[in-house]
Design goal:
The protein is α/β, with parallel strands linked by helices. The chain has 2 domains: 167 residues, Rossmann fold, CATH 3.40.50; 110 residues, Histidine kinase-like ATPase, C-terminal domain (Heat Shock Protein 90). It has a 5-stranded parallel sheet with strand order 1-5-4-2-3, sandwiched between helices. Helix 4 packs parallel to helix 5, helix 8 runs antiparallel to helix 9 and helix 9 runs antiparallel to helix 10.
Amino acid sequence: MTTSPPAAPTTPFDHRMAVYDTDEAFLAAALPFLGEGLAALGEPPPVAITAPRNLDLLRDALGGDAERVTCVPHTDWYTGSAANAVARAAAHLAAHAGPGGRIHLLMEPVWSGRAGRSARETTEWIRYEALANLLFAPLATTALCAYDTRTAGPAVVAAARRAHPGTEVYEDPARLTAELDAVPLPLPPAGAEPLTGPDAAAVRTWAEDRGLPAADAELFATAVAETAAALAPLDGTALLWGESPSLVCELRSARPVADPLAGFVPPPADGPEPGPGLWYARQVCAYVDVRDDSAGATVRLQYA
């Protein structure tokens, strides 16, 4: 008995995946996709965000059409956390996409760099791939995510398949992110310092005492204060631990967060919306871990 693959979400957002292991296989996937974008009426030029050597391959293969494709080295695009990539994509679509978000994006994270440097980091990028199906669902954007098995590796590719509609193992984004968040957080160390409030000035002073430069300490303290405001009412004191630059603050909320998109949706340009604190925290912190439970939620911020 055969089973059908899970149904893809019925949204304008077209989220595809290409897996390759040679230069020829990369071009076989990328060139038709870019050609589709070049031929689409009412769309701006397609964008290729890939490894620099792949951009060279594309320019050579495209010939005269290369001038009609916007080429961006992926090391210039993916410069921070997965949440930073969400913000970068949202800003690019707002500024450059056609009506309704129409544009073709060929996207290749830096799997030989930050995105693939650890199992934890890979988890964050798979979360980004899954949540993209919800975050960009209203937009008529077409994205092709390219995975080079020479750098990404089989475990990463297998996980990514679950985040892309059209594959036989595609998972509902909310279910996939809930699975990622089911992994328990390590217990705070015995020497974690309690902090009532938490007060931003106290967090900033503590961070500076732990060796974080003043500007970074200000960012971390603001992220803690913004998150605390978004999670109110808090349940108990905050806990602080770590050494520069990997400082950590853990907060307990008396209510669950209950939203996989919390902190990933950009606030509107004309002012904040409910929950901007988690958006700010995800932009300045390397990791923001959220764990709901029957008594509320634990949110852990790690600066770097």
